[in-house]
Amino acid sequence: MKPLKLTMSAFGVFAKEAVVDFENAGRQGVFLISGNNGSGKTSIFDAVSFALYGKTSNPERRTSKTVHSDFSSEKEKTHVCLKFSHQGHIYEVDRWGRLDKDKKMNMYSVTLYQITDGEKKIIAERQTAVENKIISMLGMNQKQFSQTVMIAQGKFQEIVNAESKDRLKLFQDLFRTGIYQQFQERLKEQSSDYNRRMERLQDAIQNDLERIRFTAQYQPNAGSSFSVQLNALAQQNQAEAQNLKQLTQQKNTQYQELESLLNQIKEGEILNADFDALHRKANAMQAILNRTDEMNQKKERIQNARNAQEVSKTEQLLLQLNRQLDAKNKNYQKLAQDAGTQSGIFEQCRRNLKQAESDAEQLPALREQEHQLSQAQPLFQELHQKEKDYKYQTSQFLKKQSDYEQAAEMHKDLLNRFLSGQAGILAEQQLLENQPCPVCGSVHHPNPAVKNENTPSQAQVQNAETLRTRKEQEFQKSSQVCAAVKAELETLRQNPVLSSMDEEQLMQNLKSCRQQIGILEDNLANAQKQAQKQEKLYSGISANLEQLEKDKAYLQQETAAQEAAFRKVLADYGFQDEAAYHASVMEVSAIRALEKEVNDCRTEFITLRNAVKELQARTDGKHPVSLDTLRTSRQQKESAYHQTEETIRTLTGHLSANQQIEAALKKNLQEAANIRNEWTLYSDLYKTVSGQKGSGQAKLQLETYVQQYYFRRVVFYANQRLSLLTGDRFILRCSETAQNLRAQSGLGLEVLDNTTGQWRDVGTLSGGESFLTSLSLALGLSDAVQETSGGMELDAMFIDEGFGTLDDQSLHQAVELLGKLAGGNRLIGVISHVGILKNRIDSQIQVVRTAEGSIIRQS
User: Fold this and answer.
1) Nearest to residue 713, comparing CAs of 298, 96, 175, 50?
2) E-state strands within 10-60
């Protein structure tokens, strides 16, 4: 896989769209990705990994959920598109993502295209399908891609100093050696399973042996082997089976003899029972014949009771009419009483209405009074307002008067001082020695007037005069306003209502007037309502009384007719009077019980008569049988039969248990032999595969043995690079010596320093030496992966930082080596901020950090 073009936006530090042209940058094989720390150099490879797998190059450092650029708005979509070549074909994978409500990346669109002659064809869509297709095409997952295509920042020292178990995990992913570990685990599970099965079988065999019940004749000696005990059990079971067969034949003979005797006893018991039944039933039939007169009387009672039921129907109608007539009479009496009461209430309501109508004649005068008082109420508010205005205007008048008097006094004082000081001003400005005085004409001025320092200027006097004039105008205007307000106040005070009462009296009179109006109106309305209500009630009661009188008359006629019908029915059914009828009345349940007694007696007599005839036929010419002798013989034969049966039952249980134990022992012993043979094979194979075979040797598991082969290939290719980078100073080799005999060995790493001729642990290398060694191992790993993976092509490699630990010579050798490795076919990107590399690598991609996110500059 070789990247050709990468486009990204709102990804990592790249807010706006940034494009990396790998195809142009890699024309010389090696290119440099440079930029300040934090500018986003590693984000380029994160974007390549994100485009292919939906994950960054180092998910522990940055997960795919946090790739949205902080320089972009949360609504802006993250976009990464990678165009790459693989095995002669051009592909493009396009990913779009956006932040969800938890501000985590949600990839909603992932598409993989194949580009042929400029036309795109979709070959996979959605996250899972695209990832599976990428893994199938490239032959590696995201973790393998990051481990082989890029040596990430800070990982150089880890590659060199990794422990054997860590290299095992890395090789397990890269070279797919996990199948050997799985094979080892399966063998371990199988061996453990055989061991558990063997233990269960041994426990089962021992339990079966303890459950065997030997007879004294076949009891084996103590400590006998499993096979001896099994043979003894088989012989005992065979002998007991023959004995059981003989006892079964004896039991069958005894059963036939007992069966014949039982039949004789049963036949005798049946005949004797027939004689006894014949005697009992004949006596019972005679007892029923003796009750013939009693049954005839009961039949007559039943017929009279049935006739009384028919008469009862007519009587019930008569009783119902009598009850209705009684109810009507009671209702009429109560309603007549209610009508008298309601008549008095109605008359009282009419008197109350007349009185309320008379009182309501006061309403017009009261409403007029209420209107006048309501109209006068706002005048008090206006009066209060005018009084407040007059008080305020009076205060303003006095203030304006005071301001005017102060201004006039100040103007007067300034004018007087101005006039008094004019001589001093004139002497100062116009009296000069040998110049004539403008007043007296003298040229000598022995005592000129002196200017007073407190003499105001003419402007001050003019300003004071202007102020006095303005204050005077304000004073006069305030006087006019105050006089107008006073006149309005006096006009209000002369109102007859305001002069006759104060506001509190007006409010009380208004409230009293309104209360009287409300009372009169309520009384009138209530009186009208009650009068209407009582009139309606009285009318309803009167109508009901009239209807009740009609109902009573109708019921009286119906009752008389029903009484005559009742008398006729009594005679028709043969009853002399009501007393005879009532004496014959019975409950339905009693009638049915009496009928049942009569019918049961008749049925029983018929049944007994038939039974007697049948028993007489069965006993004709026969005599009762003596059963004592037969029963004694039966007891003797039953005792012998049960004794034989118990012997068989005991022997059967004993033999069945031993036969089951014999079968289980044979099966378990055979299965144990089979498991022992298989278990030995699996146990030896597991110990060999897990490195536990033999003693005094370092452990080496099968997977580690396979990985040793791959590790030696990696070290072989790495030494070719390391020799060029260090001038044949260092040589790597696999260390096969474990720390102890219990630890797994095989993936350790040592380095030969040709300057000392000593092998030492790679952890003793300096920082620069570790970087060169790591670089060699990474390149060797890349070569080994391609060699062993048929479909895997590593046409690109990224190296992130690490060059800062190299001296100039080592740096020069490293760059030359990378150039040779590229060879025009492989793309090698060096991610570094080391300044000297800018002069050694011509093709460069610069990542520049700005306030709005990083940008790409390519040269």
Assistant:
1) 175
2) 18-21, 30-34
Tokens of 743: 């630890």
Distance from C-alpha of 149 to C-alpha of 797, rounded to nearest angstrom: 5
Phi, psi dihedrals of residue 98, rounded to the nearest 5°: -150, 160
| Tens digit of each residue's pLDDT (9 = 90 or more) over 409-440 | 999 988 888 887 776 766 666 667 777 776 67
For residue 277, which amino acid is it? A
* Residues contacting residue 408 through CB under 8 Å, at least 6 positions apart: 468, 471, 472
Compute the mean pLDDT over every residue in the chain, rounded to the nearest whole number.
Answer: 80
Q: Is pTM, for the whole model, over 0.90?
A: no
Which residues, listed in sequence order, are joined to residue 734 by a DSSP beta bridge? 749
Instruction: Say whether pLDDT at 743 is over 50.
Output: no
The DSSP line for 736-763 is ---SSTTSB-S-EEEEEETTTTEEEEGG
The number of helices, as runs of H, and strands, as runs of E, in the chain is 21, 15
CA dihedral 135, 139, 142, 147 (to 10 degrees): 180
Task: Phi first, then psi: give them for residue 659, nearest 5 degrees.
Answer: -65, -40
The DSSP-derived string for 67-84 is: -B-TTS-TTSPEEEEEEE
The residue-averaged pLDDT of 680-705 equals 66
Segment (H or E) for 207: helix 178-211
Contacts of 21 (CB under 8 A, 6+ apart): 5, 858
Query: In terms of C-beta density within 10 A (0-12 exposed, 13-18 middle, 19 or more buried), how is residue 400 classed?
Result: buried
Single out the residue of 453, 474, 455 nearest to residue 407, CA to CA.
474
Question: The tokens 């003989």 sit on which residue?
Answer: 246
Averaged pLDDT for residues 488-507: 73
758-761 sheet: strands from edge to edge: 730-735, 748-753, 758-761
Does 219 score more than 80 pLDDT?
Answer: yes
Cα distance between residue 782 and residue 817, in whole Å: 15
Q: What is the mean pLDDT of residues 572-580?
A: 82
Query: Rounded to whole angstroms, what are the CA distances from 688 to 368, 619, 753?
Result: 129, 98, 36
> Does the pLDDT of residue 351 top 60, yes or no?
yes
Contact 630, 292 (CB under 8 A): no
Cα angle: 374, vertex 376, 379; to 5 degrees: 130
Instruction: Write out the H or E segment, with its range, that includes residue 164.
Output: helix 164-174
Question: How far apart are alpha carbons 202 and 190 in whole angstroms?
Answer: 18
What φ, ψ does residue 157 adopt, rounded to 5°? Answer: -65, -35
Question: Quick check: 175 and 710 in contact, CB under 8 A?
Answer: yes
Q: What is the pLDDT of residue 119?
A: 92
Cα–Cα–Cα angle for 600, 603, 608, rounded to 5 degrees? 120
CA distances from 468 to 394, 400, 409, 666 (A): 21, 11, 9, 147
Consecutive H or E run containing 380: helix 363-420
Residues 6+ apart with CB under 8 A from 700: 691, 708, 736, 744, 745, 746
Closest CA to 165 of 707, 732, 689, 774: 707
Instruction: Report pLDDT digits (tens) over 140-180.
Output: 788 777 767 776 555 555 556 666 666 666 666 666 676 77
Asked if 181 and 630 touch (Cβ cutoff 8 Å), the reply is no
Residue by residue, DSSP assigns 234-276 as: HHHHHHHHHHHHHHHHHHHHHHHHHHHHHHHHHHHHHHHHHHH
Q: Are 71 and 852 in contact (CB under 8 A)?
A: yes
Q: CA–CA separation, 415 vs 408, rounded Å?
A: 10
Q: How far apart are CA 309 and CA 589, in angstroms?
A: 13
Report the half-sphere exposure of 835 (CA within 13 A, side-chain side). 0
pLDDT value for 406: 92
Closest CA to 96 of 25, 182, 33, 7: 7
Is residue 2 packed enough to be buried (19+ CB in 10 Å), middle (13-18) or exposed (0-12)?
middle
